[in-house]
Amino acid sequence: MRRLIILLGSLLLSPAPAAQDVLGGLRDQGLGFAQVTPGKSLQFPRDHAPHPDYRIEWWYLTANLTDPRGRHWGLQWTLFRQALSPPQAGLDGWQSSQMWMAHAALTTPDGHFHEQRFARGGIGQAGVTDIERDGYFDAWMDDWQWRSSAAALFPAELRFTVGDREISLQLEASGEPVANGIDGYSQKSAQGQASYYYSQPHIQARGFVSQGTDQISLGGKGWLDREWSSQALAPNQQGWDWFSLHLDDGHKLVVYQLRHDDGDHWLSGNWIEPSGGSRPLERNAIDLKSTQSREIETGDKRSRRLPLEWQLGLAEPRRRWRIRPLYDQQWMETTIPYWEGVVLVEDETGAPAGIGYMELTGYD
Question: What is the mean pLDDT of residues 127-147?
Answer without folding.
Answer: 96
